[in-house]
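Working notes for the structural subgroup meeting. M.R. asked for a predicted model of this chain before we commit to crystallization trials. I am recording the input and output together here so anyone reviewing the notebook later can reproduce the run.

Input as submitted:
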Amino acid sequence: MPSRTLPNFTSKEVDANKTTECCWVTIGSEVYDVTDFVDAHPGGGDLILQYGGKDVGAIMKNEIEHLHSESAYEILNDNLIGFVAADPVLKTAVDSDRPQDILPLPPNQAGAQELRINGAADHVPTERAYETTSMASEAHLCRETNAAEDYRKHGFLKLDEPLLMQVWNSGFSKDFYLKEVHRARQYNGDGSAPLFGNFLEPLSKTAWWVVPIVWLPWVSLGSWLAYGGIPSVFQFAAYWCTGLCLWSLVEYGLHRGLFHIDKYLPDNRVGITAHFLLHGIHHFLPMDKYRLVMPPTLFVVLAAPFWKLAHTVFYWDWYVATAVFCGGIFGYVCYDCTHYFLHHKKYVSNRHRLFRANFALRIPTAYHRALRSYHIAHHYTDSGNGFGVTSRFWDRVFGTELPMSVPKPIQAS
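Returned structure, recorded in token form:
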């Protein structure tokens, strides 16, 4: 099952959760679980409990009470658990010939139009979609997909049938393919959506922990061999860290120059299918936890040229070249694990006293939260920018950094 699917709640269900054991609040139709933050709230837990089960949108913007910072909204975003369907929305859905257009929230375009006609539009978010993704917010990455309805509406891929051969035999134009592959879906069956549909299927799935288990022993062995041929530990550390830093550039280059060659993608079945295998499937199913890290078989193919490159650039010393290469592979391991956790793990819970007491723990969690917001924005706002995963440094250098203030929406949802 997908790791995050967002259910719908009734107003009564939300109102019932307003205690220290379970406290929910809403902003518009979005429901947030703030139980872990009750004890840590700077204004005291009683203030949160006072608004338990209620909409806190107005109070969070109230300058007299206390205007909340962007960090407060980021914490809320990490605790989004679902949507509340107000009574006018429920009534419209019950009376509708196509209730699936309205529920589960957020509604699709037809559902939003029906809510406006019935005067219930004020009870759902007014959203606008971004041009390159046709999505409006992070919540769209987690919204359950009705496979049959999605195929009927968009005519792209059937989620319950092997995807690869559908792409190969589809005859999609490049423009249509790129538009649809960047519109995220959620597979609701067991495990992951089928890619090959045969004995090759296991090769397309990789749990995150496989990456460090497979590659760290080789990194350790290579580093030990390299260290034995370099005169001093300081020189070894310098070369090894050089490889680590070079990886960040390789990470950016691969993501931008190989995975996102949308403009230069050949408009034929070979190019489109290769794109789907390399990276398109990740944007199509971004919350599929078994297709977030690179399968070892694929990484061997991609790593071989970099082994050759390292030994070509540092041709004068095999040990130096190996140290640089091992530092780079360690960087890759960090990248893949980071990518997984950006999609599937939150920062340390506020309920842990150590988190509140130890400032040293606040730095990595704040950094993780910022990285997560940045990478998720790459998925739902602009897939043509924001290529850095472990850092946005090279995005700044090459002018592809995503603005993290509220960007201008492009097209009506």
